[in-house]
Amino acid sequence: MSRIWIRISGMKIKRRTVERVVMTVVGNLIYAMGVNLMINPIHLYSSGFTGISQLVRLFLLEVLHVPQIGNLDYMGIIYFLLNLPLFLLAYKVMGKQFCITTLGSIAMASAFLAIVPVPKVPIVEDRILAAVVGGIGSGVGAGLLLRAGTSQGGQDIIGVCMAKTHPNFKVGIIGIIISLFIYGVCLFIYDIPTVLYSIVFSVVTGVCIDKVHTQNIKQQCMIFTKKPGLSKHIIEDLGRGVTAWDGEGVYTGEDTYVLVTVISKYEEHHLRELIAEHDPNAFMIISDNTRVVGNFVKKFTD
Fold first, then answer.
1. H-type alpha helices, the chain
2. Nearest residue to 54 via CA among 201, 186, 247
3. Less CB within 10 Å around the terminal CB: N or C of the chain?
4. What is the distance between the alpha carbons of residues 272 and 4, in angstroms, rounded to a whole number?
5. Rounded to the nearest 10 degrees, how much is the dihedral formed by the CA atoms of 105, 111, 115, 121?
6. What whole-number distance in Å separates Cα of residue 3 and Cα of residue 136?
7. What is the C-alpha to C-alpha distance for residues 137 and 34, in angstroms, rounded to an integer?
8. Is 14 strand, coil or helix?
9. What is the pLDDT along the chain (302 residues), one digit of tens a residue?
10. How large is the greatest C-alpha to C-alpha distance in the chain, in angstroms?
11. Do residues 218 and 263 touch, judged by C-beta distance below 8 A?
């Protein structure tokens, strides 16, 4: 069995595909637990479409008095319905693959948000502690999803599409606008401490996403191999350009192929597996936080 491919029920599947599926499931579950177990019981609010879903749920339950159905939380259903109109945009701009994987992730996120029970009695009654713990959970979960090459939809879809069509567009502006709306409504409904604790939750979530999601960290990789054809596999499997030239080992006097490519950090594991598969004796130098000026493709899936 190779390092890149594994067999499941007789089917040969790329290891990276399995990893992405596992990270998507685990990420969505952790995210839902952070929101439902920590912040919903003490009436704190998330940013983004999750926060909008919380407000719509509050309106349905407290204003329209829609009856609760068992332990089913309406937030997951609302979250899914809010995301549906964005798929036309995603399909047009990002293509079929991104749309399908994101739809699967959103469906999973909606399901977990609906079935993970919201405790009637808060597990953690200290609001600042709940905001921090919930933020860590939701941030790690959302970061895993981005690392898997998918997202939870909402402003992520809008931001990814805008970044694709307008390279200089600041994606964070969308999150800021949505957050201002959500916390403005919260300030009207609740009080200043509720808004401040909710902001703490969102800040912790954002920091954890940045720590887990490594897609924006660029790496320069210099590979020394004596076997031909490795550059072709890098181009085909990772979709990254490669510059190659002929070298010579000074000590051994043997011919060596020198390959240079730039990848995002989340692709490092895939590249290392690829090299180990085709040349276990290859030598590689990796430089983190490489600054790239020019035509570097910002990928959202691999």
1. 15-33, 48-58, 74-83, 86-94, 96-115, 127-147, 155-165, 172-189, 192-212, 230-238, 268-278
2. 186
3. N
4. 10
5. 60
6. 32
7. 5
8. strand
9. 345 555 555 555 566 677 778 888 898 899 999 999 998 898 888 888 888 888 888 888 888 888 877 777 788 888 888 888 777 777 776 666 667 777 788 888 888 888 888 888 889 889 999 999 999 998 888 888 877 767 677 776 776 666 666 655 555 566 677 888 888 888 888 888 988 999 898 888 888 877 776 555 677 788 888 888 888 878 877 778 788 888 777 777 777 888 888 877 667 767 887 888 888 888 888 776 666 655 555 554 44
10. 81
11. yes
C-beta neighbour count of 277 within 10 angstroms: 15
Which residue is associated with the tokens 């332990």?
71
Q: What tokens does 96 get?
A: 């079929």
Structure tokens at 16: 């990276």
Q: What's the residue count for the chain?
A: 302
Residue in the block written with tokens 């691999």: 302
Burial of 251 (0-12, 13-18, 19+ CB in 10 A): exposed
Q: Cα(186)–Cα(122) distance, rounded to whole angstroms?
A: 20
- Torsion over CA: 251, 254, 257, 263 (sign): negative
197/189 Cα distance (integer angstroms): 15
Tokens 């060596």 map to which residue? 256
Its pTM surpasses 0.85: no
Check: CB of residue 143 under 8 Å from CB of residue 266: no
- What's the number of CA atoms in the CB half-sphere (13 Å) around residue 294? 5
